[in-house]
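User: ok so my PI wants both of these folded by tonight, can you help

Assistant: No problem, let's get them done. Here's the first:
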Amino acid sequence: MNDFKPKDQKNPSGPVKVQNYKVWVDRNLCIGAATCIAVAPKTFQLDKEGKAVILETADKEMIETIIEAAKACPVAAIFIEDEKGNRIFPK
């Protein structure tokens, strides 16, 4: 298992602020498919429970890439809102 640092140690799956967006993973929905990691490896990693967590390097990823990763999730477990609280994904 890689050593990785979640952006928020207390809430490794978020919600966290990435650039001006709020991003979080619903751990009840997440099935550990890891498609988010394939699309946005600087943002997502699986923890020892096989659930996606948001990495402290997420700010180095383009928000478009993070949105693509959310869209790639087979169970739509990744949520993204803009700074006004508008849901970007899933709609």
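One down. Here's the second:
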Amino acid sequence: MRAVAIFEEIRRRHPDIDPGIRRTLERRVRSWRALHGPNQEVIFRQVHEPGRLGLSDFTDMGDLAVTVAGVLLDHRLYHFRLIWSGFEHAHVILGGESYVALAEGLQNALWAVGGAPTEHRSDSLSAAFRNLDADARTDLTTRYDALCEHYGMVPTRNNRGVAHENGSIESSHGHLKAAVRDALLLRGTCDFDDLAAYRHFIDEIVARKNRRNGARIDSARAVLQLLPQARTGDYEVIATVTSTSSFTLRKVFYTVPSRLIGHRLRVRLYDDRLDLFIGGTRLMTLPRGRSADHATHAHVVDYRHVIHSLRRKPMALLKLVYRNQLFPRDAYRQTFELLLEAVGERAACRQAVELLSMAHERACEAELAELLTEGLAAGRLPDMAALRLRFAPDPAALPEVVVEL
């Protein structure tokens, strides 16, 4: 029972007692517990050996209010630390605490330090396990064990809910976040141009912390296990491109170039992107999408992948499942809605598709969007003839070549 609860009960039974006795009561309860109270849990300090133990954990960075291009960045940091040497590695994670995030961050850390410890400890990945059924949890455990085996590490986990067992990484979270907060204050702004700039910012902070422990890190590197010849690829999946020039992965619909229809792609998952391979050839990188809930699909669409077919069937735009995601900028979507009201469905679809085609073929997406925005502000429909002339020449037209002998 808390001392304040005892105090409130005393005051309820004896309202005339001075409320100033609370601090005296708390001191006397604390003294009584020291003499007669129950035993408390003891934390045992451990002797750490170089190259033996590495720790992984995730920490939420939402309280720093970091923005990218003015938009609040909902993210975490994957944090790895070698206990004896103090080597640290941090990786910006856009999704939740998942196996993919752990696998990517852990492997980046091991290849950065140039070796692997004999034991790797995590906090049971409680956030990743929470919503999984028994079979999925078993599968996740098997994949994690295989990842550790690939690097010759013994996988261990601290007891769930006992944070001090991972204290050597938990305390480092606070130091790292404090360093990031100070660096943001010195920088004068929490806004970054893009995600790559923010990741570079985090890398610089971690690198400065590692330089202070350079001598110990070099000593520990000599006793780390050698790395395997290649990183593990167990976070790869196979996806078949359908006739819609797309594939669906983790309840997210992705478009790809139509020349890949019918092919089976190797998809390597990361927390913020997908790398696509056909055989051993790397094709492209797509931004990773996430479904807002388990009932609906998200869409990651690039209009360049389908515009050539859409030009032949412009009316398909009207009821297209991912129509809003097809438009690369709001100006294109708003112009289409204005055209629907002004000229009807058929003409609106034809002109909207022509605008998208012009943006792609004549490499003027941003400039064309600015002109459309000006037209929307003035309540003016796009003048297709003037736009064609503005962004001439048409790449489909043959130039007139005069040869003088």
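The first strand starts at residue 53 and ends at 60. Residues 127-131 have pLDDT under 50 and may be disordered. Good luck tonight!
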